[in-house]
Amino acid sequence: MIDIRLEQTFSLTQAAKLDILPRRREGKRPNASTLWRWALHGVRGIRLETAMAGAVRVTSLGAIQRFFDALTAADTNPHQTPPPAVPTNSHLRKIEEAERRLAATGFCSRSKHSSSKKKVDE
After folding, report:
1. Domain locations in the chain as residue ranges
2. How far is CA 17 from CA 1, 66, 69, 70, in A?
3. Residue 47: strand, helix, or coil
4. 51 class by beta-carbon count within 10 Å (0-12 exposed, 13-18 middle, 19+ buried)
């Protein structure tokens, strides 16, 4: 987690211009959209740490270093399972809706996500 009291922060656009980031094709710097993708979607289950400073998403040199370290560790130990994705509320609502539809057609779901369990007569 980024501690703004201890780490200097940069917007993702500013961070893309930092000299510490490796150059890509033809010596070009990564685009700011690359850092956004690292922050929002991650790489192999690992996300770049960010914080919101008002309406601006920021990161730090330390966060970038931790991101690279985690990617390197995951790459050097390919059998290590990446952390499981945390289901979003939207995803959980879709699961519950599908379970309701199944229950309405006569199927009984025993999923841990189901908020209402259908009683089955034996």
Report:
1. 1-110
2. 22, 18, 20, 22
3. coil
4. middle
Q: What is the dihedral of CA 21, 55, 47, 16, to 10 degrees?
A: -10
- What is the C-alpha separation between 68 and 38, in angstroms, rounded? 11
pTM over 0.70: no
List the helix and strand counts (H, then E) for the chain: 4, 3
Measured CA to CA, the distance from residue 74 to residue 24 in angstroms comes to 21
**What CA–CA distance (Å, rounded) separates 35 from 60?**
12
Instruction: Quick: pLDDT tens for 6-61.
Output: 899 999 999 999 988 888 888 899 999 999 999 999 998 899 999 999 999 999 99
Question: Contact, 62 vs 14, CB < 8 A?
Answer: no
